[in-house]
Amino acid sequence: MASFARSRRLPEYRPEDGSYRATAAPLSRRVFAGTIDWTIVTVCYLIANIPLGVFQATANEVGGVVKWAVFIVTQLAGLAVVAGYFAFFLATGHTLGMRALDIHVVDQRTGQSPTLTRAAARGVLSVVFFLASFTAYTYVLGHYDTPLSDFHEVVRVVSITIASIVFFGAVWQLRDPEGRTAWDRLSGLIVVEDMVPTTMPDRLWSPWGT
Fold first, then answer.
1. What is the pLDDT of residues 129-149, one digit of tens each?
2. CA-to-CA distance for 93 and 36, rounded, in angstroms?
3. What is the pLDDT of residues 30-82, one digit of tens each?
4. Cα distance between residue 96 and residue 101, in whole Å
5. Which 3 state secondary structure label does DSSP give 10?
6. Sequence-ordered alpha helix ranges (H) in the chain
7. Which residues contact 198 (CB under 8 A, 6 or more apart)?
8. Taking a C-beta distance cutoff of 8 angstroms, is the pair 183, 162 a contact?
């Protein structure tokens, strides 16, 4: 697979208005960008859970409906950090990881930065991936003194299955004729590099505005 990725010519992309040309960003650069993004997201998620954990601990002392209501609200607030990060930055055309690797995310049809709605949908998809991957990680590497209950066994199987689908959906890019992952196609996006304006063929567009 690695040798195939190196030898394969990256597909070219042009928006409908012909304002620029670009090439699909290689999977290697996307992986590095994703590593940066998920490191940032995980740190922000953990920091956000410090005050949320205090609220939840206080609610646990109260018990009853308050306990479960606060639990649901704090969990949703923590996951909103993940969705909000991707929704906000994808709507600008680049996450922080993408900026570091000089790649862009655009609407596949228009070639412009994703709309906030499309970016938010991708952010929600990222939350599903985050939950599935994190849960699968804990079940695969965790040690248990007693056998898992039927419920937890189902959660384990489902989370590992989704995490596997996430992985294969990403490496689908290696076979895709347009260099898009399965998730790019699902959300109508494409990630590109080396954007060259038609009116300035000797100049590249950069995520840093130069």
1. 888 888 888 888 777 777 878
2. 16
3. 999 999 999 999 999 999 999 998 888 888 888 888 888 998 999 899 889 99
4. 9
5. coil
6. 2-7, 27-62, 64-90, 96-101, 116-141, 150-171, 182-187
7. 18, 19, 20, 21
8. no
What does pTM read for this prediction? 0.81
Q: What per-residue confidence (pLDDT) applies to 4?
A: 40
Cβ neighbours, 10 Å, residue 14: 12
Q: Please, are residues 68 and 58 in contact by the beta-carbon 8 Å criterion?
A: no
Neighbour-count burial for 126-140, b at 16+ CB within 10 Å, e otherwise = bbebbebbebbeebe
Host H or E run for residue 194: strand 189-197
Neighbours of 195 (CB within 10 A): 23
pLDDT at residue number 61: 85
Q: Domain segments of the chain: what residues? A: 25-187
- Burial environment of residue 88 by CB neighbours within 10 A (0 to 12, 13 to 18, 19 or more): middle
Structure tokens at 57: 């601990």
Which residues pair with residue 21 across a beta bridge? 196
